[in-house]
Amino acid sequence: VSGHGMYTSDQNQNKNSTATMVTLWDAVTGKKRREMPCGDAVNSVALSSDGATVVSGDDGNKVTLWDAVTGEKRHEMQCSNVSSVALSSDGTTIVSGDGSRNAKVTL
Predict the structure, then answer these.
(1) pLDDT value at position 18?
(2) Block means of pLDDT (10 residues each) for the chain, length 107 residues?
(3) What are phi and psi of 90, to 5 degrees?
(4) Among residues 66, 94, 68, 73, which one has the least CA distance to residue 82?
(5) I need a surface site. Which of 46, 48, 60, 66 has the fewest CB within 10 A?
(6) How many Cα atoms occupy the beta-carbon half-sphere of 21 within 13 Å?
(7) 67: left (phi > 0), else alpha (psi -120 to 50), else beta?
């Protein structure tokens, strides 16, 4: 989903999702750092405060944790109608929201 971006606490890394890909950009140079293919249209992305983890929610009813440094998939969870995701500041809790006004907390 183009236009959903977030910066790390040092303001040097911008995360954005486009179509079926989550892309990490260097906010200083504007260069692409990493792409993570989701397979389904990405609805929401969140970046951990330390910039090490990206969480994405997509139309395939998945919430996925990615390693922001390597781009590797760490974990994938099935959820329904994922429309938004958030990650706690300490990186231990994920919240996903769906189109039915439900929220799911994953520890």
Answers:
(1) 52
(2) 40 57 88 89 90 91 93 92 88 85 68
(3) -90, 0
(4) 94
(5) 60
(6) 8
(7) beta
